[in-house]
Design goal:
The structure holds 3 protein chains of 3 kinds. Chain A contains 27 helices and 28 strands. By secondary structure, chain A is α+β, with helices and mostly antiparallel strands. Residues 215-221 of chain A have low confidence and may be disordered. The chains are: A alpha+beta, B alpha+beta, C alpha/beta.
Chain lengths: 729, 73, 225
């Protein structure tokens, strides 16, 4: 290999991939073509290690309006309306520059949703960092939260939910997954496929600069190592003001029927948008880079084609309507330029002032990348570390307080108060008021609920069962507010798939996801894969993040999670069979190991239906899913949220065979903690375990009994700010 | 003509950004630094330098809470 | 009556403001920032958001728009004007209200339900107009630059004149505003601005409905004008 041809290796292409490109082109690629292939054939764009696995996922259902392959997925919510949604990762950019990484992650997912013609109505985010005793993790947490707030607040879309976890395996590879939900009239939604030979290709929004050149895609296809400081120049900078103008402009253009199709520009910029639009439409595209509005003079054609400057959209427009489109861009003070034309050549051609500087077949560029089979091999035992932070002599009360104060469990109010959760007037349940966010849809006459969940640690214990649990967790959270799941989106965050242990995790997780979705009848309408999240200390916990949208008929009939009235009964519903495997308690004791019990998916689904119907009928005062920290933590959370204590016991779980500690702090799917009128709970088949009242959390558990003043529990649960803002942060 | 306008918070107005920076310095290894104030800088090219003062008074600075200084480059 | 809600590039809460206006009384329409003619409205609302991205200073650019010139003329003639959050910032930048809004003391954007005391004020367009006992309103506040500031002499004058329209109840001032001031009126009493968002407190489903009283007071002034 000469020095010349080794260029492809620097761009992340293997030798055999390069040879395949030569074969498909019938010659060696020039610089422009090499740059474009290297990006579209990167893991981030081509999904070459995951695409075969993803074919296992169920994607169809009678409520599906848009499935995987479009800019986002969408489900029918009745009365002519559809809800679009998707989750995407921006992990590697956030590890380098957390504020802009998280901000542009939000910007990108917003564009995916309004590219369908749906007005974004909500944002949720799922974040993971190392433990908070690390300065780096505090810095990343602070930056990411500020970045999400900066972008979401400025553009005026409510951030209504999310989750934040802190685990050592994420120390060098934080996770920032952003989800967006949008609303559209079903008939007005638009697809991405370019159509109509001779139609104009119009670029709208911000001008094109050198942002992220070789950025997201290349970063995402390689493990982060020493010296990632040098990657800072390729970080994209977000401008939410520009995006708000582009958003309004696009929605007005779509409302007036002026666009044939629309696509956002994200990773790999013009290259991927033009390529994907052409591929979806079975056409070709000619682009003239000399007509692209530039922020920096003297940009080369390949730079223009791979730039990841933010806040740009690509549209296909009938020639007669181009002038009107450009006039609307002018009105909204955002850029608009006719840069190309749809052809019937089946090729993507890049021109500069009419001279061809790149010419590739669409199929080779977009679908020609080889897909790889994983070589999975189950690792021996627990491959992650263990660190004990709890004394072995801790009393049950000390354990409860330690769990409540664990940053992964503690109140995230410090974070969500930095987000505007009320703009748009749809937010019926604000963050931490209930198990899922609830958004009213007066136009459609009903409401939707949204939840985003995942637990990397438990997936590390058993990738199949852990992923099943993530799907069930989402469904349970929706049930607590009276919602029935309509569709699911997912982000698969894993380490290096070329390593057998990670390949095994990914393979098992996707199977778990597919089987759980099939069992629940919930289709996967879109998602994202982020691989190579691995540092010098090894891979992250395998972290499938699940986002689910559900519908409920009456937003006035939705429960919160807090206890409501003194004297009400507390009940347990569902096949809750807790164990300490993979639990927060096991983590704090430093005894994490492989193995998780297998949830009874059908029984959990049945319990969801019972809770959902009871909430809709107004028969429950409160409903809360039991998750991190187990029953004792769930009771404390309900008490703190309601401002009233409780008196409960674990007799029922003891009868089911649980040891006291398992009953108190064990985790697993299928547990609903509800409160309400005694007779009503009995009729639902709930097991009565206590009563609401008093100023303490009292749980009878033999010699592990707990009696903690509510004020102490609340203080522990509200300790995140002190942990996040230590000196030196 | 090229000019640089420096805009800073008026003396006596609470400047939390300045304070935050000042407080963070010792932990980063910088001793003996105080009276930190954080402001804004605008660079521009003006055909008519006469109107720069007016531009500063009306738009670039808010005279109620900020002082400004024009530097010709 | 007809409300005009001014919309700038970057405004966020204008649609919610339209809805709140109509719940209070009458019809409401958007006024695009480039319009020089308010079209005969009876009251004007400058809504919340991030006009021009809050670039340079919040409200600094928006206040130069043609629509704001028309609003200034409308206010000079005695028309009622309500500025919410970014709208309050625009009105201060435009000199239609005294003082300025600075960055929150804690340097963080904060979204939180707060309690306001509607002070007895001589201005006719606040809920406690006419010197009635102060009442408490529960309303969401969400901003990063809401710390009200004016030199002490000006503040003394505002207090003496009854121009302090809204104050944060004890323990609810999260931005460090001088003298807990959440909203003020102009001397003539026809322009009012406040940082919290009454348009997000008009629907029992999404929170309290205390915000309606803010709009109703302005509507009453609009009907009289």
């Amino acid at each position: 290999m000469t020095v010349e041809t080794a260029k492809h290796r620097e761009l992340g292409l293997t030798d055999s991939e390069f040879e395949l490109i030569v074969e498909k082109l019938g010659r060696e690629p020039n610089d422009v073509e090499l740059a474009m292939f290297s990006l579209l054939w990167s893991e981030h764009c081509a999904y070459k290690h995951s695409r075969k696995l993803l074919r296992r996922l169920p994607t169809e259902g009678e409520r599906v309006v848009m499935g995987p392959g479009e800019n986002a997925g969408a489900v029918d919510v009745g009365n002519g309306y559809a809800v679009a949604f998707k989750v995407e990762s921006h992990n590697h950019p956030s590890a380098v520059e957390p504020f802009q990484g998280a901000a542009t992650g939000v910007g990108g997912i917003l564009r995916d949703v309004f590219a369908l013609g749906a007005r974004p109505i909500a944002i949720l985010d799922s974040l993971r960092f190392g433990e908070l005793d690390s300065v780096r993790s505090r810095h990343l947490l602070d930056g990411a939260v500020r970045g999400i707030g900066h972008y979401g607040n400025s553009i005026g879309v409510a951030t209504v939910g999310g989750e934040i976890y802190f685990e050592e395996p994420y120390e060098h590879n934080c996770l920032v997954n952003a989800m967006c939900v949008g609303l559209a009239k079903t008939d007005d939604m638009v697809r991405a496929a370019a159509a109509g030979v001779g139609n104009a290709v119009v670029l709208m929004g911000a001008s094109t600069g050198r942002d992220g050149i070789g950025g997201a895609s290349v970063l995402a296809s390689a493990e982060l190592g020493e010296g990632d400081e040098a990657k800072r120049p390729t970080v994209q900078i977000g401008d939410p003001f520009e995006e708000s103008k582009v958003l309004e402009c696009c929605l007005e253009l779509l409302g007036k029927g002026l666009l044939v199709s629309l696509q956002d520009l994200g990773a790999a910029g013009l290259t991927s948008s033009a390529g994907e639009m052409a591929s979806a439409g079975g056409v070709g595209i000619d682009l003239d880079v000399a007509r692209v509005p530039l922020r920096e003079a003297d940009m080369e054609p390949f730079e223009i084609m791979v730039s990841e400057s933010q806040e740009r959209m690509l549209a296909v427009v009938e020639p007669a309507k181009v002038r009107e489109v450009l006039a609307l861009c002018e009105k909204w003070q955002t850029g608009g330029a006719e840069i190309g034309v749809v052809t019937d050549t089946g090729r993507v051609r890049v021109l500069r002032d009419g001279e061809v500087v790149g010419d590739m077949p669409v199929e080779a560029l977009v679908d020609g990348c080889p897909l790889y089979d994983l070589e999975p091999a189950e690792p021996e035992g627990w491959i992650y570390g263990n660190r004990a932070t709890l004394s072995p002599d801790a009393t049950a009360e000390e354990e409860l307080l330690a769990l409540l104060a664990a940053p992964s469990i503690a109140s995230k109010r410090w974070a969500f108060e930095q987000y505007d959760s009320v703009v748009g007037s749809r937010t019926v349940r604000r963050p931490e008021a209930a198990d899922a966010a609830v958004l009213q849809l007066p136009e459609a006459g009903n409401a939707v609920a949204v939840s985003i969940d995942g637990n990397g640690r438990r997936v590390a214990c058993d990738p199949y069962e852990g992923t099943t649990e993530a799907v069930l967790e989402c469904a349970q959270n929706l049930a607590c507010v009276g919602a029935e799941p309509l569709g699911l989106t997912n982000c698969l965050n894993f380490g290096n798939p070329e390593k057998p242990a990670t390949a095994w995790q990914l393979d098992r997780a996707v199977s778990g996801l597919a089987d759980a979705c099939n069992a629940l009848g919930v289709p996967v309408v879109g998602g994202n894969v982020s691989l190579y999240n691995e540092g010098p200390d090894g891979p992250i916990y395998p972290t499938p993040v699940v986002g689910m949208v559900g519908e409920l008929p009456d937003p006035a009939r939705t429960a919160g999670s807090g206890f409501v009235a003194e004297g009400e009964a507390i009940g347990l519903i569902g096949p809750f069979a807790p164990t300490l495997a993979g639990s927060e308690l096991a983590k704090q004791r430093g005894v994490l190991d492989v193995g998780l019990p297998s949830p009874d998916v059908a029984a959990v689904a049945a319990a969801c239906a019972v809770v959902r119907d009871a909430v809709r009928a107004g028969r429950l005062a409160s409903a809360h899913d039991i998750s991190d920290g187990g029953l004792a933590v769930a009771l404390a959370e309900c008490a703190i949220a309601g401002g009233i204590g409780c008196e409960a016991n674990i007799e029922h779980l003891r009868e089911r065979g649980c040891q006291p500690e398992e009953a108190l702090f064990g985790e697993g799917s299928g547990g609903f903690l509800v409160s309400g009128e005694r007779a009503g709970l009995e009729q639902l088949g709930a097991v009565l375990i206590g009563t609401v009242g008093g100023e303490a959390i009292e749980i009878g558990a033999g010699d592990r009994s707990i009696a903690v003043p509510l004020a102490d529990a609340e203080r522990a649960w509200r300790s995140l700010p002190a942990q996040a803002e230590r000196d030196g942060a | 003509m090229r000019a640089r306008v420096l805009i800073r918070p008026k003396e006596g107005i609470l400047d939390p950004q300045g304070k935050a920076v000042e407080r963070a310095l010792p932990a980063l290894g910088f001793e003996g630094i105080g009276h930190v104030h954080v402001g804004r800088m605008v660079e521009l090219e003006a055909e008519d330098p006469e109107r720069l003062g007016e531009l500063c008074e009306k738009l670039l600075a808010n005279p109620l809470i900020e002082d400004y200084e024009i530097q010709t480059l | 009556m007809i409300w005009g809600v001014v919309q700038f590039p970057g405004s966020c809460d204008e649609r919610d403001a339209l809805h709140a206006c109509e719940l209070a009384n009458g019809e409401a329409r958007l006024v695009w920032h480039e319009e020089r003619d308010l079209g005969g409205v009876d009251a004007v609302v400058i809504p919340g958001g991030f006009s021009y991205g809050d670039y340079l200073r919040a409200g600094a650019i928006a206040r130069f728009s043609p629509a704001m010139e028309a609003v200034a003329a409308f206010a000079a003639a005695g028309g009622p004007v309500l500025g919410i959050c970014n709208g309050f910032q625009v009105l201060c930048e435009a000199g239609l209200l005294p003082g300025a809004l600075l960055r929150n003391e804690e340097l963080r954007f904060t979204c939180r339900q707060v309690e306001l005391v509607a002070e007895g004020s001589t201005a006719e367009l606040t809920p406690s107009a006419g010197g009635e006992p102060s009442s408490r309103l529960s309303i969401p506040a969400k901003h990063g630059e809401g710390r009200y500031y004016a030199p002490d002499a000006v503040l003394d004058g505002l207090e003496a004149n009854g121009q302090v329209a809204y104050r944060y109840a004890e323990g609810h001032n999260f931005n460090g505003a001088a003298r807990d001031i959440a909203g003020v009126t102009n001397e003539a009493g026809n322009v009012v601005g406040l940082m919290p968002h009454p348009e997000h407190a008009v629907d029992p489903l999404t929170g309290s409905t205390d915000g309606l009283r803010v709009f109703e007071a302005v509507a009453a002034a609009g009907a009289r004008a």
